[in-house]
Amino acid sequence: MKEFAVIGLGRFGASVARCLTELGHSVLGIDLREDRVHAIVNDVLHAVQADATDEETLRALGLTNFDAVIVAIGGNMEASILVTLMLKELQVRKVIAKASSEAHGKVLEKIGADRVIFPERDMAIRLAHSLVAGDIVDLIEVTPEVSIAEFVAPEKILNRPLRELHLRARFGVTILAIRRQEEVIPAPGGEDIICPGDVVVAIGTNEQLTRLREME
Known about the structure:
This protein is of the alpha/beta class. The chain has helices at 11-22, 34-40, 55-60, 77-89, 102-110, 119-132, 162-165, 167-171, 206-213; strands spanning 3-7, 26-31, 46-49, 68-71, 95-98, 115-117, 136-141, 146-152, 174-180, 183-186, 199-205. The strands form two sheets. It has a six-stranded parallel β-sheet with strand order 3-2-1-4-5-6, sandwiched between helices. Strands 7-8-11-9-10 form a five-stranded antiparallel β-sheet. Helix 2 (34-40) links the parallel strand 2 and strand 3 (46-49). The longest helix is centred in the middle third of the chain and has 14 residues, at 119-132. The chain is elongated, with a radius of gyration of 21 Å. It starts with a strand and ends with a helix.
């Protein structure tokens, strides 16, 4: 079990905190607003009302002992930057910060955030891909060029062992998992067969994934 702290319990921060708890980890939720703390107090191990922009408060919370701290402060860019900076100065092990814009993200990177995430942008990318390509179930952008795509298996790769398809050699794509109704086959081997209706989870460049999905 790992220990996480989530600073900012708006919709995004609260969702992250609840998800980490459901995955079996210890979560400390922190927000200045009493109503947000009250809303999540029964869903995480600890939830406190505190001003995270106060350095002494951050020290008192003992955040240096946590595996990671997620800065999920929403509309207040100045507070997000200040909290991230103080966490890095306190030598918190890993700081993950939510950015509301590209400019915000660049500042967070420059002050040392270990990872910057763009929830709104990433959701927009997923929605756009799903609308344009009806076979895509989900898509995670790893970099602007590389993605992990979850899509309905094209007909040309059905009913044959993976070793016969040579997908990595032909397309440069690696199959990470196969989802079959309620069953998930992680890291499928050469003898695994993709069946009609299966959903494939694969990683590759966007061009490589498109070629595989549209293969004839």
